[in-house]
């Protein structure tokens, strides 16, 4: 009897101990901490291609891919230290086992930098302050040194801010939401109706562009008097964004910019609710300024039986029209469609209608699925594992000659139960032509490792400081980079064609 009680007690103690083996962190958290925060990471990607042909691309290009893929490998590595915010990441491409190209990213608490054999013959290191706005690299010289940083990054920073920050900012932001609601009521038109047997109440607003500009100016007056909100926004803004948008002294400059904007058309808002107050449709349409690459955009969210459908439809400045939908279902399953109507005489895959004097349409349906898996513990080998998988199925509409295609990802994380045990990440990414069964595969084998030697950007002598260059000098530098990249690509593909030709002649 006592032996039986002892056995039961031992089993209970063992059962209680198992969850404690991974207590306090998941495999994903452990991998992230080891690879990017406290230790190092190293992995290798190899490639393969199978199949005689695919209608997804030109036959000559497919032949080159098949011949080149097994000769390539990519090494990925990153190292850091838990005592300082500094480290280095490297990407090395090898062809037939010999290094063909290498790129490195360096960072410390003050600077970040990069170098690559693809950008300069002497592997020059290009650095800038870590807070410097990297989008200045792609700004044209005509925009000048005083070009304002794009506001989109700051908007995304607000949307993706930690919940603790959002809670602190909520009381401030609610004030502006209330003011906007009151303003919208001045343009509101309430109606009732019925759709698919469901009664609804609809609020529609059509607001002239000039009225939108006037309201923005009024909100800016209130905004620049709101020290609490300005202080909170400075916590998540870059120094350039804070200097441009979060200084009350800049209000006059912003007003001047708004006055010069041409905003043709109106902003149209539609909100539809059923009799119980549940949202059936939220839609907003707005024009853009003359210098924008987008001329019009409509964003809508519509309730469906199996989820909420988002839709983005609009027109680009060059006349391209787009219509993208996404239905977010349960269990991380997303379905939808993409339809892009190109201006005349544009060639593209997925074309379902074309002809002289006619526009061309790219159209396909898609199904995206992601299964994150769960951590599983094996007592036999004292290992935690997590299997993850995702897939994207693309099905062209109409009579397109492009085949149905799929992209699948299978990945596995594994590690011992100890916090100091190395964590492995192995994954396989596969593109497949569903008609001919042609495939291209990238396979990753990787693990976290002990930290290794690295270089900090602050220690590099004669580094090129991008943030201290003029915009004209940066534009010239990028032009030189593009030429070197184009030359490397042509040499890589050209050598592959030569090797392919030699092989077929033997």
Care to describe what's here?
It is globular and about 70 Å long. It has helices spanning 2-20, 27-38, 59-68, 152-159, 163-185, 209-223, 227-234, 239-245, 251-260, 471-505; strands at 40-50, 72-81, 84-95, 98-107, 111-116, 126-129, 188-195, 198-208, 266-274, 279-287, 294-304, 307-316, 321-328, 333-342, 360-371, 376-378, 383-396, 405-416, 423-433, 439-449, 464-465. It is an alpha+beta fold and 506 residues long. The chain has one domain. It contains ten helices and 21 strands. The protein has a 21-stranded mixed β-sheet that branches. Helices cover 29% and strands 38% of the residues.
- Report the biggest beta sheet as strand number plus sense, adding barrel if it closes: 21 strands, mixed
| Low-pLDDT ranges | 1-5, 7-22, 140-144, 352-356, 500-506
Distance between the termini: 82 Å
- Which structural class fits the helix and strand makeup? alpha+beta
Could you say which overall geometry the principal axes of the C-alpha atoms support? Answer: globular
Question: In total, how many domains does the architecture comprise?
Answer: 1
Percent of sequence in beta strands: 35-45%
Mean of residue pLDDT values: 85
| Radius of gyration based on Cα positions | 28 Å
Helix content range of the residues, please? Answer: 25-40%
Count every beta strand, where a strand is a DSSP E run of 2 or more residues. Answer: 21
Question: What's the helix count?
Answer: 10
């Amino acid at each position: 009897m006592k032996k039986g009680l002892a056995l039961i007690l031992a089993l209970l103690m063992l059962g209680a101990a198992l969850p404690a083996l991974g207590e306090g962190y998941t495999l994903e958290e452990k991998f992230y901490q080891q690879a990017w925060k406290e230790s190092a990471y190293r992995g290798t990607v190899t490639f393969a291609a199978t199949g005689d042909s695919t209608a997804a691309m030109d036959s000559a290009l497919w032949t080159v891919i098949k011949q080149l893929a097994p000769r390539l490998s990519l090494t990925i590595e990153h190292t850091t230290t838990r005592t300082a915010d500094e480290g280095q990441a490297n990407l090395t491409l090898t062809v037939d086992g010999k290094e063909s190209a290498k790129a490195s990213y360096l960072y410390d608490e003050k600077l970040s930098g990069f170098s690559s054999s693809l950008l300069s013959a002497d592997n020059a290191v290009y650095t800038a302050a870590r807070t410097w706005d990297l989008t200045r690299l792609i700004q044209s010289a005509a925009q000048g040194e005083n070009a304002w940083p794009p506001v989109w990054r700051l908007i995304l920073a607000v949307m993706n801010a930690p919940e603790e920050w959002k809670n602190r900012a909520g009381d401030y932001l609610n004030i502006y939401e209330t003011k906007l609601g009151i303003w919208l009521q001045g343009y509101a038109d309430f109606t009732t109706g019925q759709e698919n047997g469901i009664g609804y109440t609809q609020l529609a607003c059509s607001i002239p562009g000039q009225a939108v500009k006037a309201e923005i100016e009024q909100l800016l007056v209130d905004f620049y008097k709101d020290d609490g909100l300005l202080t909170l926004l400075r916590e998540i803004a870059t120094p350039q964004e804070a200097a441009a948008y979060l200084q009350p002294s800049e209000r006059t400059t912003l007003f001047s910019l708004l006055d010069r904007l041409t905003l043709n058309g109106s902003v149209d808002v539609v909100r539809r609710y059923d009799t119980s107050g549940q949202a059936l449709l939220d839609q907003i349409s707005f024009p853009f300024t003359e210098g924008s690459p987008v001329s019009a955009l409509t964003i809508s969210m519509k309730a469906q039986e199996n989820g909420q459908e988002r839709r983005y439809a609009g027109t680009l400045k060059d006349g391209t029209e787009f219509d993208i939908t996404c239905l977010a279902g349960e269990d991380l399953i997303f379905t939808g469609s993409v339809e892009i109507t190109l201006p005349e005489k544009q060639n593209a895959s997925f074309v379902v209608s074309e002809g002289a004097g006619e526009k061309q349409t790219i159209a396909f349906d898609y199904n995206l699925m992601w299964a994150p898996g769960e951590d599983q513990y094996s007592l036999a080998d004292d290992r935690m594992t997590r299997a993850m998988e995702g897939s994207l199925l693309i099905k062209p509409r109409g009579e397109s000659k492009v085949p149905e295609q799929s992209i699948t990802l299978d990945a596995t994380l594994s590690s011992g139960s100890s916090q100091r045990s190395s964590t492995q990440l192995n994954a396989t990414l596969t593109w497949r032509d569903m008609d001919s069964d042609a495939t291209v595969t990238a396979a990753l084998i990787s693990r976290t490792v002990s930290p290794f030697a690295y270089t900090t950007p602050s220690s590099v002598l004669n580094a090129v400081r991008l943030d201290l260059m003029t915009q004209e000098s940066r534009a010239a530098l990028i032009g030189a980079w593009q030429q070197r990249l184009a030359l490397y690509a042509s040499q890589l593909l050209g050598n592959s064609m030569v090797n392919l030709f030699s092989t077929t002649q033997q």
